[in-house]
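[Q] Does anyone have a clean structure-token version of this?
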Amino acid sequence: MNRLKITEIFYSLQGEASTVGIPTVFIRLTGCPLRCHYCDTSYAFQGGNWWNLSEIIHKVAEFNTLYVTVTGGEPLAQSSCLTLLTQLCDSGYKTSLETSGALDISKVDTRVTKIMDLKTPESGEESRNLYHNIDYLLTHDQIKFVLCSRNDYIWAKSILRKYCLDSKYEILFSPSYNQLNPTHLAGWILEDGLQVRMQIQLHKYLWGDIPGR
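[A] Here you go.
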């Protein structure tokens, strides 16, 4: 099947990860098997419209940027996402994938930068983490922890140690928006001397919870 159900394609500043602040085209796929307590894209769980892959590539080309992020929902819930990722790379785009870590990433094109969540206890979906996905991460990939509390932070530290993650990959610690005080998280990271990148969701501070920004 050479089509995908898309919620929206939009142009904005990247709000997270290592390319934060860079103008980026976002392709938001419809559907997600998870229900994280802090989810801010529940509008993408249903609905959407079917697009042929050629139509998606043509739409992306309308924007003057080399950066494309495929997100959701959970993009890998649709099998044709893998083909789209490869076509974007073939077209010369610097392509990233935002994925929950609950679905197999082993077949993702190695040119894609994978930004993979590990779900914390207070997300409500910790049991969905596929830890064997760590074996398929490359040095340019990133692991993200969205933290809701001090307990989530302590849990994330234990996962870093257990899998030696901070010595292999870039680690992102993100406070759940309006749930964990970013200043508190910054203080904990400095106090413990963690080798992680703290990030806030830039787009939320610029535009709030407006979809498609």
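[Q] Thanks! Anything notable?
[A] Helices lie at 53-61, 81-90, 150-163, 182-192, 202-207.
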